[in-house]
Design goal:
Layout (H helix, E strand, L loop, with lengths): L27 E4 L6 E4 L3 E3 L2 E3 L1 H6 L8 H18 L4 H18 L4 E3 H8 L4 H13 L5 E3 L1
Helix pairs in contact: 2-3, 2-5, 4-5
């Protein structure tokens, strides 16, 4: 117990559990006391044919937020897939997507792309494809506003 009433843990070298000081640590977790957020670095393992991260998924029960890069890639892939499934021109779709992203970055007013606006721009005049795109975006857990 500390003077300010908080509990403080100190790491003691226990050679049967912790690696030596020169050895690289394979997995670790940091839990921040101010907001209880977790930063975790670890390996995924295959258990019963399913890839899982035991510590993050089972022990810590972490919920993952996808990065902005993964979000932008997911939006592009979903737009391309919806276009292919409906017999559209994928090159035109991807060029409209890149044009929209470039316009947003050049304007400098917004630092994100809005998936609703992307749907309006790419699938203008194609309400079926637009609704399918929005549905697949929601299923993929891509946020409505993606940071660029």
């Amino acid at each position: 117990m500390q003077d300010d009433g908080k509990v403080k843990n100190q790491i003691i070298n226990h050679y049967a559990i912790l690696p030596t000081t020169s050895q690289k640590i394979a997995e670790c977790a940091f839990i921040f006391e101010d907001d209880f957020s977790i930063k975790y670095l670890g390996k995924k393992r295959k258990i019963d044919g399913e890839t899982t991260d035991l510590i993050a998924d089972v022990l810590l029960e972490c919920i993952y937020d996808i990065s902005s890069r993964e979000s932008v890639n997911a939006v592009c892939k979903i737009a391309k897939k919806v276009t292919e499934e409906n017999g559209g021109d994928t090159i035109e779709t991807l060029s409209k997507m890149k044009e929209y992203i470039t316009e947003n970055i050049e304007e400098g007013e917004t630092e994100f792309i809005d998936t609703e606006q992307v749907a309006d721009k790419i699938f203008d005049g194609k309400p079926g494809m637009k609704s399918e795109f929005i549905e697949k975006i929601e299923k993929a857990n891509v946020p409505q506003k993606v940071e660029v």
